[in-house]
Amino acid sequence: MSAEVPVAYYLVLAAILFSVGVAAFLIKRNVITIFMSIELMLNAVNLTFVAFSHMWHQIQGQIFVFFVMVVAAAEAAVGFAIIIAIFRTRQTLNVDQINLMKS
Amino acid sequence: MQLALFIIFGALAVAGALNLLLQRHPINSALSLVVVMMSLAVLYWSLGAEFLAAAQVIVYSGAIMVLFVFVIMLLNAGEEEHTTGSRAAYIVGFPGAAAIFCILSFVFLSERKALGLTNLGGQLNSGLSNIAEISTVLFTRLLLPFEVTSVLILVAILGAVVLARKEQ
User: Fold this and answer.
1) What tens digit of pLDDT does each residue of B46-102 get?
2) Hey, which end of chain B has fewer CB within 10 Å, N or C?
3) From the list A13, A22, A30, which residue is nearest B100 (CB)?
4) Contact: B100, A59; criterion CB under 8 Å
5) Does the CB of A102 have a partner CB in chain B at under 8 Å?
6) Where do the domains of chain B lie?
């Protein structure tokens, strides 16, 4: 027995994960959690790449996901360095209190 | 088989994402993000991308999430507190995210017939394996971008070291 799943369901799952990531990005106040929701959105987009790659029987979508992973790893390293630098100067992780450029 | 895998791990991914949204402590959010990434790895595998499934486990839940947990522990991040700014984000955030979700799923479900069905194994059993295909493309046609990513990672390492260095 092999029940097949429509590709559209994978895309809808990715849409759910992406919009939860958007909501978390807007609602969360901790800068680390905001960073996590960016990773969640990247993962949701990766799922659409893999689903389309499967649909078209093309390998390029998976290569694109590979490059997204590399860039995400580099971004995580730089982002955490910035977070640590912010924490060292401001002693807080709350984004509402990081408002030096606002005034 | 594929439908069962999709339902179980799709539900697990959505539950993990919602748990990330609802938890107040960053370490709980980080651990639920690990659940999302592991279930996405299973979904990649069910779509015939076994190299990416392995890379997802190794890179994302292995390297990046360990970095997340490490930084949370290092900075001793506690529970986040409510402020006036976050209440405005609640009012704008939930309808905005719901609107994005509605538009995307409307488009996907209305094009459902054109998008077709997935068939597990149909792509895999035909000749080359997935990893051989990926490496053939990556090391012949896309060799220059692949080498450029190593420079990118080197620059990222240098940037991280410079940014996180203590001021003298």
Assistant:
1) 888 888 999 999 999 889 999 999 999 988 877 776 666 667 777 888 888 889 899
2) C
3) A22
4) no
5) no
6) 1-80, 82-124, 127-168
CATH code reported for the domain at B1-80: 1.20.120.1200
Alpha helices in B57-142 (DSSP H): 65-75, 84-110, 112-115, 130-140
Model confidence over A28-80: pLDDT tens digits? 888 999 999 999 999 999 999 999 988 888 888 899 999 999 999 999 999 99
Total domains in the fold of chain A: 1
pLDDT beyond 70 at B13: yes
Residue A15 is part of a domain; what is its CATH number? 1.10.287.3510
Helices B26-46 and A31-56 pack at an angle, to 10 degrees, of 10
Please, are residues B133 and B124 in contact by the beta-carbon 8 Å criterion? no
Give the three-state DSSP class for B46: helix
